[in-house]
UniProtKB/TrEMBL annotation:
Name the record gives this protein: Uncharacterized protein
Amino acid sequence: MLEFIKDIPQNQIRNVALKLPPVTHGFRRGQPPELQQRVRQFVAGIRRWTDKEWDLFQEIWLLWIRCNPELDAVLAQYDNAADFEGEALTPANSSLDIGCFDLLIQASQEWKVSRETIQRFYTFGYFLTDERIEQTIRQARPQADFQLLRELTVLNNQVQQIVDCQ
């Protein structure tokens, strides 16, 4: 979970970390090392989390999504309002949740979101373990493919500049 939180820029996670209990010994209060220790202690206490801590983790999860603008843009297009209508709670992994992953895979095929980002969204989200979702995620393009495309694009641009100069 710490790796997930480390994906969030320091200046973004700071506001959340300040809501956690301060570290009492060995750190200057409010400084980055102390805030990092607050987050480590928060994560270490996961088995004892109350609703308040789970609400704070939800805030972290939403912050992580906003720090992944490509993912955030795809999710903003998806209408899952029906999961929140009425009095009854809709269980995790509803048909709308499954549909969301289908949309994410489509976005991955369009070079917008990597498999690793989708996997983290699934792993640290509210979803239950589900073979259907995991099979769907395996269809997404890996981050290595995104890196290769970036490198090929740069190479193509360099070749084009050489051709244009001749």
